[in-house]
Fold this protein.
Amino acid sequence: MKKLLHKARNILFDSCDFLELLMALIVLAAILIACCSLGSSFLDYWNDRFSKEAFLTFVGYVFNILIGIEFLKMLCQPSPDTVLEVLIFLVARHMILDHTTVIENLLTIISIGILFAIKKYISLPSGKENYRIFSSSSDSEESENEKNS
């Protein structure tokens, strides 16, 4: 019974890896489509280039693509660093594009500072930095063997 349960867990775990890969491919397709549509957004900005709103709209599109790229990196190589990078981009986008009060701006700056402090002072236990969903367990074992030699 335990053997069957262990096998079922392994199948579920492998299917989760497959689903993560599938989601990463869907996100990649969405990023590529967004990049293609960025040209028309740039032309809209160029036609109304003296307007602050046109610039902020264009920067909003660029931020969305950058956040999508960081999210894709997080799916492909999950680590605290990639999660923090996504959060930093999200908070920065909120501060730059949204019309916020002085208190909200202060809280946003403090939160970015906290995220950078977390990134700088909190590290992973050794051996966990090279985890990737696209690598097999033998790849990670090989990289660990290279570190030990």
